[in-house]
UniProtKB/TrEMBL annotation:
<protein>
    <submittedName>
        <fullName>Putative glycosyltransferase</fullName>
    </submittedName>
</protein>
<dbReference type="GO" id="GO:0016757">
    <property type="term" value="F:glycosyltransferase activity"/>
</dbReference>
<feature type="domain" description="Glycosyltransferase subfamily 4-like N-terminal">
    <location>
        <begin position="16"/>
        <end position="149"/>
    </location>
</feature>
<dbReference type="InterPro" id="IPR028098">
    <property type="entry name" value="Glyco_trans_4-like_N"/>
</dbReference>
<dbReference type="GO" id="GO:1901135">
    <property type="term" value="P:carbohydrate derivative metabolic process"/>
</dbReference>
<dbReference type="InterPro" id="IPR001296">
    <property type="entry name" value="Glyco_trans_1"/>
</dbReference>
<feature type="domain" description="Glycosyl transferase family 1">
    <location>
        <begin position="171"/>
        <end position="310"/>
    </location>
</feature>
<dbReference type="Pfam" id="PF13439">
    <property type="entry name" value="Glyco_transf_4"/>
</dbReference>
<keyword id="KW-0808">Transferase</keyword>
<dbReference type="Pfam" id="PF00534">
    <property type="entry name" value="Glycos_transf_1"/>
</dbReference>
Length: 346
């Protein structure tokens, strides 16, 4: 059954898990369905040629009457079977124009922790990216679909060595004989990289911080004040992060909040042991001995040390296989398509 589907991404410049999820899902759906995406013009190149892209300036307020009118007019012009609103702002915009879209089925997706989920109930179906996020949604609407990623690139030993040598040239202060702890994420408060840096005082390993954000200068200052510059490297935003993750001994997540972290999915797909704080998604997948309480630097140091032990691979080996089977873009897309088809039958 060919469907006409509109995906709405109402962010304006971010490149986090929400955006990557939408790019992957939309591009995969477009292989079998008629896909339209309404998004900020900065994302145009993220979608393949099968996707019909409609540029809208979502930097405007969700109360902006011109934004609401433009969105309503576009959807009425496209006349889709399904409108899928990704995250809170998109869901709220759709809730305001829903009276003008009486014959269209609406799906909303919850990507992050929200105290008030009432906006998402505009959806005839509500998808949550972890079990925890589905709490409070009526059973007749709630569906859990974990984020998926494409398979990791298959890198040769030579390519990995070249990557490692390149980083070592850029950061000669690092001792290449030490094990490598890696963190990938935006340098923003919610990711709490400061907690990870604090915990690394107790660990004889190098730390690569991949990502950029508003806290970079303060985090670099923290590293300097703790006098661990010879073990910490800020690599900034990297388009080859999926390749670099394959060099890690341990991947660490130190966040205060998550929906279902793509970093965890990427790490497990790359056969990498993880240590993490107790955030949504993580608690549904990782062994408990590799999870620290949120905000607990001592606890995080303890689970990182545990993850650096050789026997950790035994604890994770079954998870690697499970992630490769279940946490894929294809699985995520098939489950989403089944929800669409179910709505159109009602």
């Amino acid at each position: 059954m060919m469907m006409k589907i509109v995906q709405i991404l109402a962010t304006s410049g971010g490149l986090g898990g929400l955006e990557q999820h939408t790019f992957n899902l939309t591009n995969e759906l477009a292989l079998s369905q008629e896909l339209h995406v309404i998004a900020h013009p900065c994302y145009a190149e993220k979608f393949n040629s099968n996707v019909k892209f409609h540029a809208v300036d979502f930097a405007r307020s969700r109360w902006n009457i011109f934004l609401l009118w433009q969105l309503k007019s576009l959807i009425q012009q496209i006349q889709p079977d399904i409108v899928h609103a990704q995250a809170g702002k998109a869901a709220e915009l759709i809730s305001r124009i829903r009276p003008f879209l009486p014959d269209i089925k609406v799906v909303t997706t919850i990507h992050g922790t929200k105290k008030n989920k009432s906006t998402y109930l505009v959806g005839d179906a509500v998808i949550a990216v972890s079990q925890a996020l589905a709490q409070g949604i009526p059973n007749n609407k709630a569906h859990v679909i974990y984020n998926g990623v494409y398979p990791q690139p298959d890198l040769s030993i030579e390519h990995k060595q070249h990557l490692l040598q390149t980083i070592q040239q850029d950061f000669p202060q690092l001792d290449s004989n030490k094990k490598l702890v890696m963190c990938i994420g935006r340098l923003e408060p919610v990711k709490n990289i400061s907690l990870l840096i604090e915990s690394m005082q107790q660990i004889d390993a190098n730390l690569w911080i991949i990502g950029d954000g508003s806290l970079r200068a303060s985090l670099e200052k923290q590293v300097s004040e703790l006098n661990i510059q010879n073990r910490v490297a800020f690599l900034g935003f990297r388009i080859d992060a999926r390749e670099l993750i394959q060099l890690a001994d341990v991947v660490v997540l130190s966040s205060d909040r998550e929906g279902f972290p793509l970093v965890m999915v990427e790490a497990l797909q790359a056969d990498k042991v993880m240590a993490s704080t107790r955030v949504n998604g993580v608690v549904e997948w990782l062994p408990n001995q590799y999870i620290a309480e949120i905000g607990d630097a001592q606890g995080l140091a303890k689970v990182i040390k545990c993850a650096l032990q050789p026997e950790a691979q035994n604890d994770f080996s079954a998870l690697y296989a499970k992630a490769k089977a279940e946490l894929t873009v294809q699985a995520m897309t098939e489950q989403t398509l089944n929800i669409y088809k179910g709505l159109l039958k009602t």
